[in-house]
Amino acid sequence: MIWVFQGDFGIIQKAVKVELKVKQSDPDQLLFDLVGLSDLINGDGLFEIKESENQSYQPVGNLTMKASGFLAGIMNPVLERFVPQLVEQLVKEIAIKVGKK
Fold first, then answer.
1. Which site from 9, 33, 47, 79 is most exposed, i.e. has the minimal number of CB atoms within 10 Å?
2. How many angstroms separate the Cα of 71 from the Cα of each of 22, 59, 83, 92?
3. Are 40 and 72 in contact (CB under 8 A)?
4. H or E stretch including 16?
5. More confident: 79 or 24
6. Mean pLDDT across the stretch 64-84?
7. Nearest CA-CA partner of 82 in 1, 2, 18
8. In terms of Cα–Cα distance, which of 86, 90, 96 is closest to 6?
9. Cα(92)–Cα(101) distance, rounded to whole angstroms?
10. What order do you get walking across the sheet with 29-36 strand by strand?
């Protein structure tokens, strides 16, 4: 699977392509690595569905991304702000998809 993130990296707006490589998958959890295709960005993460106390289900996500190479000094501070917002957006989208099933 290939993900494309559109981000504002200071004075540059940029699309970053990463490939998601599944490490482990079961019905409630997906663990994955991210490998940069357009830039030297790598990371990992997980998405899982957790049952809450009231027996409803809630998606949870975690994602880390880190740039290396020439632009790392510019991109990593932006990624630190961008990634938490991205995870929140992805988890909301997953919740919508799961809620429709």
1. 33
2. 27, 33, 17, 30
3. yes
4. strand 12-26
5. 24
6. 84
7. 18
8. 86
9. 15
10. 2-9, 12-26, 29-36, 41-51, 57-67
